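Subject: two folds for Thursday's group meeting

Dear M.,

Sorry for the delay on this. The cluster queue was jammed most of the week, so I only got both jobs back this morning. I'm pasting them in the order they finished. Each block is the input sequence followed by the predicted structure tokens. Could you check whether the formatting survives your parser before we put anything on slides? The first protein is the one we discussed after the seminar.
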Amino acid sequence: MNRKVPISLPRKQGGVALIMVLLVVALVTVLAVQLSKRLQMNVIRTMNYQQSEQAYWYWLSAEEIARQLLQLQVKDSKGVIHQGQVWYLQTEEERVYPLEGGGNANVAIKDLHSCFNLNALKGDSLSTEQLVRRKVQMRMLLQAAMPDIDDYKADVIVESMADWLDRDEQMASSYGAERSDYESLNVPYQAANDFFVHESELRLVRGITQPVYQALKPYVCVIPNSNKNELNFNTVEHGELVHAITLGALTVDEGKAALENRPDDGYDGIEDARNNSILAQASGQPINPNFGGVPRPSGITAESLGGMFDDLVVKSNYFELDTQVQFGDMELRGQSKLYVAEDDSVVLLRGLGEP
């Protein structure tokens, strides 16, 4: 009778099999962890995308509400805009709107006629007198914002701004800058020869250093594709702007005093604004333009530039919305520039990021 002899693996082979099993388990565990991480990342990415899209549409919704509010305000007041209206009177808390699902939207409205339009120096459609007037205004604003700025540097900045905006490649004076000046820099670029799109573009212009830009920033803005130069006396907040726009008929301090002397609901027209005691007193005095050191075109005098009231208005059509949306873990900030009339309103430009 034959006995069956039990077959057993050598100890070394059993150890190898155990190691192989452990390796397989470890490999499966690593793959499972990696798959779990990828799934988690995909879920987070999807949530971020959804929150980003939702925040974007909340931004557009806030823009639409503000657009309708402004159009109603313009229609009710026949275009007259002042600081006694709802769009301006809202406090910081009243500008914050709760959102469904959590979060909030904060909308701030700015009148783009309460600041100096950088595109006003685009002189392609202006007469010589008009362009010189605007250059003088820009120079006086720059010197009011930076009292210690060198006269030569102020001339360079103003002339370079005009060259940046005009369509040709020829400098209007030796103080300006054109394509060749920018192409010779360590990091070369070209002059736009067109309208400014955003205030930050000013940093590219010859002579505009960071301190100069920061000094000018509270006083300037950009109206897209327009060289209008109208300052709304009802909404302007800085005496420096009144001083510059009136070509020195008012000092900075007198400009501040004139603004403090306004009625709460503004003026119905510039003729009405002449009743402002500070303006009335200044209107009897000649303007005091600062031409700087740039050679003047033939026939240009202080008298040929016009009067102190020529660029003052009480109506506004261009506005900027600065909207901040916080939804979930997403924060979005965007600016919208609007044209608003009694019977029409258009979004001219949108941009994301800090203003």
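Second protein, same layout:
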Amino acid sequence: MKQFISLLFTVCFLSSYAQDLYKATNGEISFFSEAPVENISAVNKNAKALINAKNNEVAFVVTNVGFKFEKLLMEEHFNENYMESHKYKVSVFKGKIINEIDFTKDGTYEVTAKGTLDIHGVTVEREIKGTLTIINGNITLTSEFDVALKDHKIKIPKVVIKNIAEVIKVSINIQFSNK
């Protein structure tokens, strides 16, 4: 899996110079499912991400087994029954920020990234809105967006249909540096 992650970032950013790359190794990606029977939330604090300031490319990858839940049983069901984490080890977004950003200037920028989101082995074209905050050469990316389970062929057994929302709210908070 480390080889896959390395290959992804190498391919996405091969033509780049080091000073134009911002990376993160401990990004936080969480999700929330609001359903009639119970709410479910999980967080992964080990997302890997890159931004190429030269061409506005952005990518992040997260291991599916890295999501931690309040209840261990929920975590087991997530990995075994829904995400099939033994088969689909990572979820990946790769795309391009379509807004003009001056990465050398401190500020807060509302951005949209257009690209592909691969979850559960199904790749979907997406436009994801977020906020980039640049302070002293460090970047924070925050975003909230919805993911419909059916778009990624994640099936919910009828016996637990009231326990899991069909659309999940995903939140991202990633701190980048170019060191």
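Two things I noticed about the second structure. The chain has one domain: 2-176. The beta strands are 21-34, 39-52, 57-63, 68-69, 90-97, 107-119, 122-135, 138-148, 167-176.

Cheers,
T.
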